[in-house]
From TrEMBL:
Residues 276-295 are annotated as: Disordered. It comes from Alkalibacillus flavidus. Coiled coil: none annotated. This is Autolysin. It comes from the Bacteria. SUPFAM superfamilies: N-acetylmuramoyl-L-alanine amidase-like, PGBD-like.
Length: 295
């Protein structure tokens, strides 16, 4: 974990306490931001001290804003004994954020001698008057209760049926694993395939499979990267053929064989969408145009 310690640089922090009896999860309700941008809002509210002890940025970086014994302004009426952690996001968080949150919770539950039931969402304390923290806290507490971390996270070093299923899904979506295939071992090859999918989906590229990556994988049309042309074969070609069918350019049988009919369908698509590249080859420009047509 990368920790940016900004304690002593943030506003206020003069009121202290001796006890913490709950950890409160928040979201920022913004797509971006950090403690410095959030301070502008806090100052506009007339607060002397900010709202969060820690902020977990989109890339998983932790900003340590205040010592644990500082009283911050997270939830009115509950701040005297609450430790506040905020994830930057509007109800949707990166897999790296969830992984880091899990680790931080483990640390603080041990430090404060608390139980899973003491991890609370802002909304639960505010009687439903806010959408914060933008996630079902029963799900969050279930992850913590698992004891080994978030069961929905799959990452390098993991093994088993879940990894094998992940690998099969990656292959079916055109992210080839030529060296090891679906062997049930999450190694460097699988990690790179996951990163390629994340990059193509426009989400955080961290190689970790969590809720955000699963949503990207569940989309029906995740187009393969790479270059494919007449004579190419495999799951990636099959996925290209399905995409062509979806946007109204029949490639013939969806059989994973880049034959004359698939080549002709690509050329026809290119004539309409990539007129400067009518060569029958599926490459980056054609992929980008097809992705736009599928959106």
């Amino acid at each position: 974990m990368q920790i940016e310690d900004v304690r002593g640089q943030t506003m206020g922090g003069d009121s202290t306490r001796r006890t913490v009896n709950r950890i409160v999860r928040h979201h920022s309700a913004t797509e971006t931001g950090d403690v410095w941008t959030f301070e502008q809002y806090w100052q506009s509210k007339g607060w002397e001290t900010g709202g969060y002890h820690e902020i977990i940025l989109r890339d998983g970086t932790i900003q340590r804003c205040y010592d644990w014994d500082v009283v911050t302004n997270g939830v009115k009426g509950y701040n005297a004994t609450s430790y506040h952690i905020c994830l930057v996001g509007r109800g949707s968080f990166t897999d790296e954020q969830e992984r880091v949150f899990q680790k931080r919770i483990e640390t603080w539950l041990n430090e404060f001698q608390l139980g899973v039931q003491d991890v609370i969402g802002h909304r639960e304390l505010a009687a439903g008057t806010t959408q914060c923290p933008g996630i079902d806290m029963d799900v969050v507490r279930a992850r913590i209760n698992d004891g080994s971390g978030d069961p929905s996270l799959i990452q390098r070093g993991d093994r088993g049926k879940d990894v094998e299923q992940l690998q099969r899904t990656l292959i079916s979506k055109g992210y080839d694993l030529p060296q090891y295939g679906a062997d049930g071992v999450f190694g460097s090859e699988t990690e790179q395939a996951v990163k390629s999918l994340q990059q193509d989906a426009g989400i955080t590229v961290d190689g970790i499979v969590g809720p955000e990556t699963r949503r990207a994988m569940d989309r029906e049309m995740t187009l393969p990267t790479g270059i494919y042309r007449k004579g190419s074969r495999g799951q990636a070609v099959q996925h290209i053929q399905r995409a062509l069918e979806r946007i109204g350019f029949s490639p013939g049988p969806v059989d994973g064989i880049y034959g004359p009919k698939t080549e002709a369908a690509i050329k026809q698509f290119q004539k309409e969408h990539v007129p400067n590249e009518v060569d029958g080859t599926y490459g980056p420009n054609t992929r980008s145009a097809m992705a736009s047509a599928l959106a």
